[in-house]
């Protein structure tokens, strides 16, 4: 399947807002990939598909989770904003036959993972800076992303941790582990 065919399908499946966001993330991911000398097509495809499952109806999410034996924890209310990443990774693998690098980048774009490769880090960061409305506290992230991707990730995760604490929430264990690893570097 060509990139154009993938884009066409994504456009049909997502709302105009979500499709525009996905295009922005894909373009930002491509720029970061060029900067860091990795495959820009992989970065673009991972970016365009990163939210492919974001707007799926709940019943369809449940089917993907059951059919592909994903964690039942994803069905819990507190996981409603992260389950699309795991489901999206399965869709990338099963529907588009994409490689593990792209699938992992999609899977980890919401909570991260201590074993993220450079592509996954790029998609994570591109999802934050490839948008129309970058919050003021994340504006430095755009510059930092092109200087040191790990420092950019650390900056982003520290901001996220602070926001969660202010709202009385705790960080996902996988994200906490990633943050701890980045702090040790």
Automatic annotation (TrEMBL):
It catalyses: P(1),P(4)-bis(5'-adenosyl) tetraphosphate + H2O = 2 ADP + 2 H(+). Keywords: Hydrolase, Iron, Metal-binding, Nucleotide-binding. GO terms for molecular function: bis(5'-nucleosyl)-tetraphosphatase (symmetrical) activity; metal ion binding; nucleotide binding. Its EC number is 3.6.1.41. It is an enzyme of class 3 (hydrolase). Residues 18-132 form the HD domain. InterPro entries: Diverse_Catalytic_Enzymes, HD/PDEase_dom, HD_domain, HDIG_dom, YqeK. The keyword Manganese does not apply. It comes from the Bacteria. This is bis(5'-nucleosyl)-tetraphosphatase (symmetrical). It comes from Candidatus Faecenecus gallistercoris. The lineage of its organism: Bacteria, Bacillati, Bacillota, Bacillota incertae sedis, Candidatus Faecenecus.
């Amino acid at each position: 399947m060509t990139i154009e065919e993938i884009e066409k399908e994504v456009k049909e499946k997502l709302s105009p807002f979500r499709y525009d966001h996905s295009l922005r993330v894909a373009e930002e991911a491509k720029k970061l990939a060029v900067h860091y000398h990795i495959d820009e097509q992989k970065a673009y495809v991972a970016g365009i598909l990163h939210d492919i499952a974001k707007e799926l109806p709940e019943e369809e999410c449940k089917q993907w989770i059951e059919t592909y034996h994903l964690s039942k924890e994803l069905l819990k209310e507190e996981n409603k904003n992260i389950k699309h990443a795991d489901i999206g990774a399965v869709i990338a693998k099963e529907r588009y036959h994409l490689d593990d690098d792209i699938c992992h980048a999609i899977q980890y774009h919401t909570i991260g993972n201590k074993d993220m490769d450079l592509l996954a880090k790029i998609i994570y960061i591109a999802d934050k800076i490839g948008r129309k409305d970058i919050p003021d506290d994340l504006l430095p992230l755009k510059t930092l992303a092109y200087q040191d991707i790990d420092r950019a990730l650390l900056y982003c995760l520290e901001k996220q941790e602070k926001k969660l604490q202010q709202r009385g929430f705790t960080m996902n264990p996988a994200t906490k582990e990633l943050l701890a690893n980045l702090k040790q570097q």
